[in-house]
């Protein structure tokens, strides 16, 4: 009968045509994701449509059979035909119901997989950096680099090394740290750099000898400052050292005038011998490569970073956590209102967009990350205790609630 042909034609179209979409081939990953999502959505809709059509058909045919007089041979034949149609409708309805359930589960798994992909886990946070075009935030997170771009998280290409002392520069990054498990590279790294965001590493110095946790590199000057924790083949003593020629030579800084325990280092983006140091007793700045320093703040420092324009951003940890921008020429400080971070959740790392000083991101000791694109008027949380959070405002997927909290010790 016609109904049987129509139902089976739709059925065969639904369950055979999408197979080619899921086949492995040379399509780009994005195209595969779009095809997969389209397949799941269309399959769910078509299965649901067939299920509704089947149920309606069964109902109509049952109503029709009740009107027939089975004592008449002609109408008895119609009843037999309708009974066959009901059986076909029942089978099609059962199969389409299975399709609705299957495609529903498939769609749910796709959504969850995307959520997991866009919500990376930051096992540790060992630095922050923003690329030269201002589009990507990089976070070294023990198991490789994590990237926040256009409101979404992903893992960077390249090996999953444990980068320490991570410092973004205009054409890539410098770092120290340790190789990932199973890597053929020596442990620790000493000083390495990359011009392709970690896909390849260039070994510079002290390879297999030392891991620098305290390290900062000038964004444009590429002057390297490290705090050496122990004597090694290139440095006879502990303390601050710098190199202006990609580690060919090192100079030890005397740090005359500094006090407190060192907690942060920030190399000026363009002035090779200008470096800021944070200690438990304040912010100190040197213009002679760390030989002498001058104190410009007396609050305990947890994190430091220069903007590309040369302003110094400091994270303070005293009675409450705070961020201030310091003009090195005038010593003027501009305090930012930030979300309440909780006791002991100090600001360890700060990064400023090279192209827009209104765009700031900071990371805390408890692996919370906050982002502002309007100079601190509003802050959005993009990682909560190490779990990445997609930004609805930057992806354009809808409205979201900004973190717009004033500092409040009572919270």
UniProtKB/TrEMBL annotation:
Regions crossing the membrane: 39-61, 88-109
UniProt-annotated stretches for the region Disordered: 384-411
Organism: Cytobacillus firmus
UniProt key word S-adenosyl-L-methionine: no
Keywords (A to Z) from UniProt: Membrane, Transmembrane, Transmembrane helix
UniProt feature, compositional bias: Basic and acidic residues: 397-411
Protein name: Group-specific protein
């Amino acid at each position: 009968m016609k109904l049987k042909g129509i139902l089976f034609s739709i059925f065969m179209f639904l369950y055979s045509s999408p197979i080619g979409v899921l086949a492995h081939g040379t399509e780009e990953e994005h195209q595969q994701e779009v095809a997969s999502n389209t397949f799941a959505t269309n399959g769910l809709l078509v299965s649901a449509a067939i299920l509704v059509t089947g149920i309606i058909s069964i109902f109509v045919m049952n109503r029709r059979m009740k009107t027939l007089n089975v004592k008449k041979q002609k109408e008895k034949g119609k009843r037999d035909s309708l009974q066959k149609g009901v059986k076909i409708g029942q089978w099609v309805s059962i199969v389409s119901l299975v399709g609705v359930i299957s495609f529903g589960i498939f769609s749910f798994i796709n959504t969850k997989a995307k959520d997991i992909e866009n919500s990376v886990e930051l096992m540790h946070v060992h630095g922050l950096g923003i690329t030269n075009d201002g589009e990507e935030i990089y976070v070294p997170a023990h198991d490789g680099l994590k990237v926040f771009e256009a409101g979404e998280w992903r893992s960077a290409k390249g090996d999953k090394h444990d980068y320490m002392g991570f410092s973004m520069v205009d054409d890539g990054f410098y770092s120290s740290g340790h190789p990932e498990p199973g890597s053929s590279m020596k442990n620790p790294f000493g000083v390495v750099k990359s011009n392709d965001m970690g896909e390849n590493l260039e070994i510079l110095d002290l390879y297999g000898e030392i891991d620098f946790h305290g390290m900062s590199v000038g964004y444009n000057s590429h002057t390297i400052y490290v705090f050496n924790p122990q004597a090694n083949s290139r440095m006879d003593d502990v303390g601050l050292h710098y190199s202006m020629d990609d580690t060919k030579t090192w100079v030890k800084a005397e740090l005359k005038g500094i006090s407190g325990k060192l907690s942060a280092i920030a190399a000026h983006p363009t002035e090779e011998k200008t470096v800021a140091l944070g200690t438990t007793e304040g912010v100190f700045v040197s213009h002679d490569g760390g030989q002498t320093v001058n104190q410009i703040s007396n609050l305990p420092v947890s994190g430091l970073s220069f903007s590309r324009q040369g302003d110094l951003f400091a994270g303070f940890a005293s009675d409450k956590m705070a961020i201030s921008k310091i003009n090195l020429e005038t010593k003027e400080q501009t305090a930012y209102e930030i979300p309440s971070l909780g006791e002991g959740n100090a600001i360890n790392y700060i990064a400023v967009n090279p192209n827009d000083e209104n765009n700031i991101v900071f990371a805390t000791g408890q692996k919370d990350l906050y982002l502002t694109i309007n100079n601190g008027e509003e802050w959005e949380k993009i990682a909560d205790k190490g779990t990445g959070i997609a930004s609805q405002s930057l992806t354009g997927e809808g409205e979201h609630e900004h973190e717009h909290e004033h500092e409040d010790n009572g919270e």
